[in-house]
Amino acid sequence: MTTLQTEQHGAESAENAQHGLKAHSDGDWANRVPVQTRSDRPKSANIADFPEVTGREVNWKYTPVATIKSLISGDLTDGTSALEISEAPGVEVSSVPMDSELVGRGGLPEDQAAANAWGQIATAQRIFLTSEERQTIVVKRTSLSETPTAAHTIIEAAPQSDTVVILENTGSANLTETVEIVVGAGANLKVVSIQEWDENAIHVASHNAVVARDGNLQHIVVSLGGKVVRVNPSIHLDGPGANGEAYGAYFADAGQHLEHQVYIDHNAPNTRSRVAYKGALQGEGAHAVWIGDVLIRRVAAGTDSYEENRNLTLTEGTRADSIPNLEIETGDIAGAGHASTTGRFDEEHIFYLQSRGISEDEARKLVVRGFLFEVIQRIGNEQIEERLQTAIEAELSQSVLA
């Protein structure tokens, strides 16, 4: 760990220490107090600073820990270089050592899988964006195998830049990674992470973002393929006027586990956030997990925040866990709220479509398409949106929705 990272970890530990907590002579009581809130979780690039994962922890209790055990604590190969990055004006790509001051600005790991990856690779891939005219770059990852692998990517948007970065994940994988996102003052950055892995792939990712004054980050996750996919965005609004938006769409099939834990940290006045994740589930054992945490700190006067998660269960045998949380430390806010729903089709919608001559089966499929496309259309790339729509059509063609 670099000096900068050690200092950050020490400062955060001191700031988040529970008031009145100290060790007693009757044992290590202080270290056994459970974490009460999202902001209290330990942060470190050293896996030794985390206790062993049992599956009972609040951030692991819904995850199939046994399936991803090798990524949490096992040996990993370095897969950072397995990226294909398209060229565009104002895009600089370089490899930086993990002890560089450029590493860690998006935030330190908050769980063992991220810390394990951080400690077993030598370099990070840095994508530096400087164009003030909107550019779109595509980052593809297709060459991974089932060998447990680690990776670290830094996406940095210079002040006043305007870029769309699309991360495409396909093929086989057994991957744990950190994606750092650094948004400069007044910059506009859209990061789209698409998971279309093979059916046996495992992908555990921490996306750690920091947004400066008047910066704007739009983060979009689309998870369709993979056996276990866990993508956790953590967005810290650290400058006045910063805006963070997190959107997600997912479609879980039989035996598939798709998980997203979203954290929005309002750490400056007049910041704004919006979180909206939508998922569909079908087939025996299909499991979706969404946990949304929003922290509005004492310094974040004027905050405007809202988060929601909607799940559409298409068949019997599915499970959707949806947990929205708000932590508010000041009453001087513009607004804050959350919503969560999980259920079957709205029969009034189905009846309306049938009254227009559409069969019941096709009506149900139309509802699902529209439900997920509300998120997918935010990508803003017609070719990719059409491809994802085709993938959803393929999912629906295999289902029995009646």
Automatic annotation (TrEMBL):
Residues 146-371 form the SUF system FeS cluster assembly SufBD core domain. SUPFAM superfamilies: Stabilizer of iron transporter SufD. InterPro entries: Fe-S_cluster_assembly_SufBD, SUF_FeS_clus_asmbl_SufBD_core, SUF_FeS_clus_asmbl_SufBD_sf, SUF_FeS_clus_asmbl_SufD. GO terms for biological process: iron-sulfur cluster assembly. Residues 1-46 are annotated as: Disordered. Belongs to the iron-sulfur cluster assembly SufBD family. This is Iron-regulated ABC transporter permease protein SufD. The lineage of its organism: Bacteria, Bacillati, Actinomycetota, Actinomycetes, Micrococcales.
